[in-house]
Amino acid sequence: MRNYKGSLAACLAAAAMMAFSGCGGSQQAEKAPLVKTQQAGSASQADIGSYAGTVRGRYETNMSFQVGGQIIARNVQVGSPVRAGDVLMTIDPRDVVQKANQGDAQVASARAQLDLAQRNLSRYSELYQENAVPAAVLDQYQASYDAAFAAYQNALAQAAQGHNAMGYTNLTAGANGVVSSITAEEGQVVAAGQTVLTLVQTNELEVEIQVPENRVADIQTGMPVTVDFWALTGRTDGVIREIAPMADSAARTYRVRVSLPNPPAGMQLGMTANVRMVQPDEPDSGAAGGAILPLSAIYQDGDTPQVWLVGEDGTVRLKDVEIGSFGDNEVVVYGLAPSDLVVTAGVHKLHEGEAVRTEASAS
């Protein structure tokens, strides 16, 4: 009986040890660190920044009357589409008509003076031919005729200007577009040259962004960009067309215009877009294709930068890489295969040959 009890106790103890050993092994397996990874892929372009922008017209015209007066008609509203030749506003033409009439009267007066001077010159020319008057008298009448002729030409020019002004009482659109703002209302008296509305031509739209002064050296005209519209799906290619030569005095940013050779359907004025700046990489000699990785993926314990790669067996190993250009929290590295699985977080807590768990294996 004692032998049976002793054997039973031994079996129970052995079973408990096996169970503890199994639990310990399971806990040991679950202690493999979970790491965040990214497939290296390849990159022919480096990200150097993203900026919020607004759709604007390439040609925005601040329109004004060429003559002053009171506005008696406004035919458009903000957002109204217009066509070339449409009358947008009209000012009271009465004063302009009176000036035109005044010019015509001055022409008639100058013409009468010219006719008188011409007749006097003809008479005294005949008297001079008959030696009845000296040459000095003839010269005086010749000068009077020349002055009358010049006054007549001046009156004609002023009259023509007055008649031209009659056509300036209607503010007409010079091109197809959309009225983006109105700064004068019916009944208001405006001066010549005072802006009354802004017309945006819709035949060519582009995106305007503001680039900080510490990043403007990274971009140049002709550089390719990608544009994402928050209200539209898909991505559009663009090109930097213009960089302002001076920074804004208040914001200290540079205005940059991005042209869109193939604008997406549905793009409208005022839409918000995100412009991503990219520039071609220039790999070092002997380097393979570049890969864009987070800065947190770089492990450097000496002079050579490295990254941790996850093998097919689930263990990590270090790989030497070459550093290319830097972007916003990103870096271009060379020396990786597109299929390499790179650890992108917690790289300073890993050890060579250590087993790890990835997002794919943990799911």
UniProtKB/TrEMBL annotation:
Domain of life: Bacteria
Pfam families xrefs: Beta-barrel_RND_2, BSH_RND
GO MF annotation list: efflux transmembrane transporter activity
Keyword Methyltransferase: no
Domain CusB-like beta-barrel: 207-279
InterPro entries: Beta-barrel_RND_2, MdtA-like_BSH, RND_pump_MFP
Signal sequence interval, chain numbering: 1-21
One term under GO cellular component: efflux pump complex
Keywords for the protein's UniProt record, in alphabetical order: Signal
Domain Multidrug resistance protein MdtA-like barrel-sandwich hybrid span(s) in chain numbering: 65-200
Homology family: Belongs to the membrane fusion protein (MFP) (TC 8.A.1) family.
Protein name in UniProt: Efflux RND transporter periplasmic adaptor subunit
Organism per entry: Selenomonas montiformis
